[in-house]
Amino acid sequence: MKKKKIIKKKTFSKEIKALVNFLWECRILKYIPRASLQYLKGPTKENIAEHSFYVAVIAWLLANLKKAQEEKVIKMALIHNLPAGRGGERNLINRFYTQEINKQKIIQEISEDYYLKDLKFVQLFQELAEGKTLESKIVRDADILAEMLLEKECFDLGNKQVNKWLLFSLNRLKTKEGKILGELLIKTDVDTWWLELVKRYILITEYF
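The chain above was modelled as a monomer; its predicted structure follows.
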């Protein structure tokens, strides 16, 4: 008679289990649409996770231009909308009439719930909220520029009313480099980047 093999169950620490739950909380951001979409009235769709990616990339570029701490701005950008998973997403109009969610408390809870204190989420978020350091100003501008990408796409797709939002967003930018990027963003057609590639390769590419 064959002996039954004893399968040892793997045990994981509560810290490791918490990290997996943190990843699931991050993933919920892909199901939360940008609150500004209802006022842009365009066909373009965008969720919080997508927006956060654009903010991180833009912040990285701005940090490089400003010789700021690139690692810090990327971290700030990645967590700047984490509270939306628990507190929801509100646009500028909503904020005139509703009470601000306690984002700092949510970040504090996330840090504690998932044993992330060593990552300094609370300190980074507090610095961003205060907006006094160069890095925090860069992330704030990156947040606005990411919104402008969405606005410009809607504009180029036919909603000319969005021009009002673009100009308003442009005026909110604080850094010199952010303003320059914002001005160029408004003037640049959304399809320019790939049309330039077509011009470069169209004559040397075989089609058959």
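The chain has one domain: 14-204.
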